[in-house]
């Protein structure tokens, strides 16, 4: 029965009397966590450690519950007033109500808890989380949802999903504090130029609109809908918009984390744009993925290279290589580097910029990696779902001497480490705050291969 919703006598969950709850910590999704009088865990969004709050239950099971905040009775020392005027309604951020130092502490605890609880790894100390250089204005890419509302009038709403009603959209104009002003200015001009019922955009009930700031201006990627709309008219009407791409997709496939269906099509403006990474100007197609926080991504990139050590004359595999930033740099330093990237556009860009000594395979990691093992060094940078279940066994059988694993989800990272625990020793853990005001955190772990003769049955280990 665990995990099934329970009946609450004759009352609905939302009709129950409010409860007073003491918040103890921040959970992995950014919600405050405490305990009810019966011992069950309760998750309450928009709460801070040491808060005493009044809240009412909205969901419950035998082991956990979720509540909605009614009032803060006694604020904890780490609570602050959120800077964004939309914060109480918008689901885009989760931690604006925490002091920034408290956000970093919460993310460090999330990483430690995942590695301990899921991975069976006892850390000697809580890992460091490198603070971002800017709390706000750091995103060079922002995605909005546009919905056309049913009815005779051609009405649309466009913005972010609502906090407690993810099916609803909170209208966003220029209020968001996470993006730089020049990106938000283009967004507001786009809103004013797409016409009644957003007729200049592709047809469809729901669209995802992603704007990315590049050297030349702002590029728009439209996902969903059918037909290109009137892209040339949008380019003429929106100052600062330099290119438009479109990926037709069913609305159901636009959910975060769902696999993308097909490559985007260039429909107007510049096909090739440029961005500056690690001091190198690189040419990209407008739909190519790069991290949203350039400054922190570059810090993380340098840390990964430091952890790899001197790779001169070594064979390095860069799995999930994207546009090949690691492999290109390593080849220039004298390594023999091979990148693996499934996404066609990114693989093409990586191949285009490949320096001597760096080759790129446009293939899935689970299919290509075995032919490249064993390796001297291996970079793993998988999507949020982590490694395919066959890869840990592949790495146990044909190990890489050193692995640097970059993860955007501590839970899947911990799961993957547990699968390889007998074959690799965990040497270092460090996290980076690429996404201030949210619960997301990037974690980098360094692993050293254990010779087969020295392997033992998996036991929780202590990492330095």
Give a verbal description of the structure.
This protein is of the alpha/beta class and 464 residues long. It folds into three domains: 1-79, Nucleic acid-binding proteins (OB fold (Dihydrolipoamide Acetyltransferase, E2P)); 116-131 and 293-463, Rossmann fold (3-Layer(aba) Sandwich); 141-277, OB fold (Dihydrolipoamide Acetyltransferase, E2P) (Beta Barrel), CATH 2.40.50. 20% of the residues lie in helices and 31% in strands. The chain is built from nine helices and 24 strands. The protein has helices at 100-117, 181-193, 231-237, 294-308, 325-332, 344-352, 365-368, 390-397, 410-419; strands at residues 19-26, 32-35, 41-44, 52-60, 64-74, 122-123, 129-130, 141-148, 156-161, 169-171, 206-213, 218-223, 241-247, 265-269, 272-277, 280-285, 315-319, 336-340, 358-361, 375-380, 400-407, 424-432, 442-449, 462-463. The strands form five sheets. It has an eight-stranded mixed beta sheet, with helices on both faces. α3 (231-237) links the parallel β12 (218-223) and β13. α1 (100-117) packs parallel to α9. The longest helix has 18 residues, at 100-117. It starts with 18 loop residues before the first strand and ends with a strand. 43% of the residues are buried. Mean pLDDT is 90; it is low at 1-11 and 458-462.
């Amino acid at each position: 029965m665990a995990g099934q919703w329970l009946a609450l006598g004759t009352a609905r969950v939302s009709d129950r009397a409010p409860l007073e709850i003491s918040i103890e910590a921040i959970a992995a999704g950014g919600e405050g966590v405490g305990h009810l009088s019966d011992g069950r865990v309760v998750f309450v969004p928009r709460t801070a450690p040491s808060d005493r709050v009044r809240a009412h239950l909205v969901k419950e099971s035998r082991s956990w519950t979720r509540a909605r905040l009614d009032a803060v009775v006694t604020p904890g020392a780490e609570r602050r007033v959120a800077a964004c005027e939309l914060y109480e309604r918008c689901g885009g951020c989760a931690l604006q109500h925490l002091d920034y130092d408290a956000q970093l502490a919460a993310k460090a605890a999330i990483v430690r808890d995942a590695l301990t609880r899921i991975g069976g790894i006892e850390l000697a100390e809580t890992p460091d989380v490198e603070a971002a250089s800017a709390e706000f204005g750091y995103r060079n890419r922002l995605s909005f949802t546009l919905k056309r509302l049913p009815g005779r009038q051609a009405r649309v709403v466009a913005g972010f999903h609502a906090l407690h009603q993810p099916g609803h959209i909170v209208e966003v104009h220029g209020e968001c504090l996470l993006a730089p002003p020049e990106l938000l200015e283009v967004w507001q001009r786009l809103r004013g130029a797409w016409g009644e019922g957003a007729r200049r955009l592709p047809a469809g009930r729901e669209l995802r609109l992603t704007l990315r700031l590049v050297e030349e201006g702002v590029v728009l990627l439209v996902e969903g809908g059918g037909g290109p709309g009137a892209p040339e008219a949008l380019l003429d009407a929106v100052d600062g918009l330099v290119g438009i791409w479109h990926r037709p997709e069913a609305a159901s496939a636009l959910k975060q984390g769902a696999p993308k269906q097909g490559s985007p099509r260039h429909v107007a403006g510049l096909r090739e744009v440029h961005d500056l990474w690690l001091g190198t100007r690189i040419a990209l197609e407008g739909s190519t993925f790069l991290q949203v926080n350039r400054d922190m991504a570059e810090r993380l990139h340098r840390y990964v290279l430091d952890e790899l050590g001197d790779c001169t004359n070594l064979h390095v595999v860069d799995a999930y290589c994207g546009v090949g930033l690691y492999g290109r740099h390593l080849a220039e330093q004298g390594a023999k580097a091979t990148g693996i990237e499934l996404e066609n556009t990114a693989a093409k860009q990586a191949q285009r910029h490949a320096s001597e000594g760096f080759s790129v395979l446009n293939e899935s990691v689970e299919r290509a990696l075995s032919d490249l093992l064993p390796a001297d060094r291996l970079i793993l940078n998988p999507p949020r779902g982590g490694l395919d279940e066959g890869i840990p066994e592949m790495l146990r059988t044909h190990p890489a001497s050193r692995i640097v694993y970059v993860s955007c989800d501590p839970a899947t990272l911990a799961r993957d480490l547990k699968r390889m625990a007998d074959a690799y020793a965990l040497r270092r853990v460090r996290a980076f705050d690429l996404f201030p005001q949210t619960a997301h955190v990037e974690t980098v772990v360094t692993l050293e291969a254990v010779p087969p003769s020295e392997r033992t049955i998996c036991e929780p280990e202590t990492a330095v």
